[in-house]
């Protein structure tokens, strides 16, 4: 997390630990104050048959998608709307 550099490609390790995922999620949430109404406890959750499960890589992926969607919406609004 100390090495801040721009990237074109991001690989989320399927074995990311809960502690690492939580640290990254907190940073992402801080950059999305307008998304605080979302339910963070549902990030990374999925249903496997009848069993509820959690995936750290899925949660990080979901948050990154939301972050970029909100950012694109803001950019579009500042430029006069999305078309």
How does this model look, in words?
The protein is mostly helical and 83 residues long. Helix content is 43%, strand content 10%. The chain is built from two helices and two strands. The protein has a two-stranded antiparallel ribbon with strand order 1-2. Helix 1 runs parallel beside helix 2. The longest helix is centred in the last third of the chain and has 23 residues. It is globular. The N and C termini lie far apart (36 Å). The relative contact order is 0.15.
User: Which percent band covers the strand fraction?
Assistant: 5-15%
> What's the rounded overall pLDDT mean?
86
* Helical run tally: 2
| Shape designation | globular
Helix/strand order, N-terminal first: HEEH
Considering DSSP H and I runs of 4 or more, what fraction of the residues is helical? Answer: 40-55%
Number of strands: 2
Instruction: Give start-end ranges of low-pLDDT stretches.
Output: none
Largest sheet: 2 strands, antiparallel
**Rg from alpha-carbon coordinates:** 15 Å
Rounded to the nearest angstrom, the distance between the terminal CA atoms is: 36 Å
Judged by helices, strands and strand pairing, the structural class is: mainly alpha
Strand order of the largest sheet: 1-2
Brief summary of the model shown:
The chain has a domain at 33-78. Helix content is 43%, strand content 10%. It has helices at residues 18-30, 56-78; strands at 45-48, 51-54.
Key phrases:
single chain, 83 residues, mainly alpha, two-stranded antiparallel sheet, 2 strands, 10% strand, globular
Topology:
Elements: H1 18-30, E1 45-48, E2 51-54, H2 56-78
């Amino acid at each position: 997390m100390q090495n801040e550099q721009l990237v074109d490609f991001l690989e989320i390790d399927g074995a990311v630990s809960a502690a690492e995922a939580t640290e990254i999620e907190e940073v992402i949430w801080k950059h999305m104050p307008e998304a605080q109404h979302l339910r963070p406890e549902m990030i990374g959750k999925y249903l496997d048959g009848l069993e509820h499960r959690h995936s750290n890589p899925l949660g990080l992926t979901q948050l990154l998608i939301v972050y970029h969607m909100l950012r694109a919406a803001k950019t579009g609004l500042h430029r006069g709307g999305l078309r």
